[in-house]
């Protein structure tokens, strides 16, 4: 029965992570997968998370099933984080949120919901985008198209081309936006550009799907929601897939949410009943631990302020590494201008390194970078910066 099955290609990012684990070079450096590292190169559990977990272990009374959509305290906290606690959407109950297994789980439920309830819709993703987007949408049979985003020559957003592509998207299709900290380029629209995109969305009549996996990693929790909130002032309907993998460091707990925003509370009830139906047919109901940790932290002022400080420390360290990377390369006499890297947001940057240079960094120096040249700045530390920049200077000179 199984003898005809072909080996599937490895995930370009997670596969690289597996290869890194087996790398024998003692000086190896991992700038592949988007996992935050601290100054010591570790991915520790946040103090706020540990404290919340201690409380949970002490107070937890049952392991009985959660509801399909997850606990109310969690869902309310997610909405407050996305919209701001005083938003009209919350007062008018125009949104419904379901807990999901990570941001990926939220995208997958969104995909099934789109496939069933927006028949014929194509999903448009930026070029480039996170490697998994195409697979998630295609795996439910959706057509995926791409819109212009990145200009490799100027290493910036090609906003005119982006507007031109999105002007071709027909009414009823779905456009995926990265809420902040665009993966893989690190380049986000400005506030003015978000406003133009929102206007275009409303004119064209496409549905925005926000993938919001890095809230708090760019400029701050509120600041990073700017694009999302500008859209919400302009359009009545939206899907939002958010993840707490990065901003709570809860990668392996698989915690995120899918939020549906509708024109009215009645529409939201109907749409949400269908979201719940998709969930039921997938994994029935979500795991408890991750969401319990997140809602314990978000709903407790002391834990919340500790978490916000820890998030700020992660964000600040990444920005410091960006500047240090640029100045260290310069100090090593690298002629190319890498200053664009210090202007970008979030964990990632497109370095402009070619596939050959990426391969050489891996084989000669044990430095792992995604083939596209995307580097995870979050994997840089003060300790690995010198050998990293020496190696990059070497491959650029060859
Ligand atoms: N969306 C983007 C843009 C991401 O970079 C990630 C990274 O993991 C995800 C979604 C998925 O998040 P999660 O790990 O919570 O499934
Ligand atoms: O882009 C990244 O590195 C992270 C982690 O299939 C990730 O978003 C990468 C690939 C994947 C799942 C998560």
From TrEMBL:
GO terms for molecular function: transaminase activity. Pfam families: Aminotran_1_2 (PF00155). The keyword Transferase applies. It comes from the Bacteria. InterPro entries: Aminotransferase_I/II_large, Asp_trans, NHTrfase_class1_PyrdxlP-BS, PyrdxlP-dep_Trfase, PyrdxlP-dep_Trfase_major, PyrdxlP-dep_Trfase_small. Residues 27-392 form the Aminotransferase class I/classII large domain. Keywords: Aminotransferase, Pyridoxal phosphate, Transferase. Its cofactor is pyridoxal 5'-phosphate. This is Aminotransferase. It comes from Rhodanobacter aciditrophus.
């Amino acid at each position: 029965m199984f003898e005809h099955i072909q080996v599937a290609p490895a995930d370009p990012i997670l596969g690289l992570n597996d290869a890194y684990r087996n790398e024998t070079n003692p000086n190896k450096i991992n700038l592949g997968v988007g996992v935050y590292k601290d100054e010591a190169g570790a991915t520790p559990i946040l103090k706020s998370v540990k404290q919340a977990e201690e409380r949970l272990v002490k107070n937890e009374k049952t392991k009985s099933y959660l509801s399909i959509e997850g606990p109310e305290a969690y869902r309310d906290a997610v909405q407050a984080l996305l919209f701001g606690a005083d938003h009209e959407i919350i007062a008018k109950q125009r949104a419904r949120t379901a807990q999901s297994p990570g941001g990926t789980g939220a995208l997958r439920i969104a995909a099934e919901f789109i496939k069933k309830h927006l028949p014929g819709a194509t999903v448009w993703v930026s070029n480039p985008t996170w490697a998994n987007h195409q697979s998630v949408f295609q795996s439910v049979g959706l057509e995926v198209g791409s819109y212009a985003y990145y200009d490799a020559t100027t290493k910036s957003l090609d906003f005119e081309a982006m507007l031109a592509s999105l002007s071709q998207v027909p009414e009823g299709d779905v456009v995926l936006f990265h809420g902040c900290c665009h993966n893989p380029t690190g380049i986000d629209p400005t506030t003015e550009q978000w406003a133009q995109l929102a206007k275009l969305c409303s004119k064209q009549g496409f549905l925005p799907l926000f993938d919001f996996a890095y809230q708090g990693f760019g400029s701050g929790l509120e600041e990073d929601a700017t694009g999302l909130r500008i859209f919400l002032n302009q359009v009545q309907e939206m899907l939002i897939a958010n993840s707490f993998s990065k901003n709570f460091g809860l990668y392996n707990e698989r915690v995120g949410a899918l939020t549906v925003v509708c024109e009215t509370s009645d529409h939201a009830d109907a749409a949400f009943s269908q979201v719940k139906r998709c969930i039921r047919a997938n994994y029935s109901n979500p795991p408890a631990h991750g969401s319990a940790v997140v809602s314990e932290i978000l709903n407790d002022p002391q834990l919340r302020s500790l978490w916000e400080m820890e998030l700020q420390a992660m964000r600040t360290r990444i920005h410091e590494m960006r500047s240090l990377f640029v100045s260290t390369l310069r100090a090593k006499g690298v002629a190319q201008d890498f200053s664009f890297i210090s202007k970008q947001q979030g964990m990632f940057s497109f370095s402009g390194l070619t596939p050959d240079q990426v391969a050489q960094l891996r084989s000669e120096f044990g430095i792992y970078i995604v083939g596209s040249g995307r580097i995870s700045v979050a994997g840089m530390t003060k300790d690995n910066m010198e050998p990293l920049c020496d190696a990059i200077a070497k491959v650029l000179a060859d």
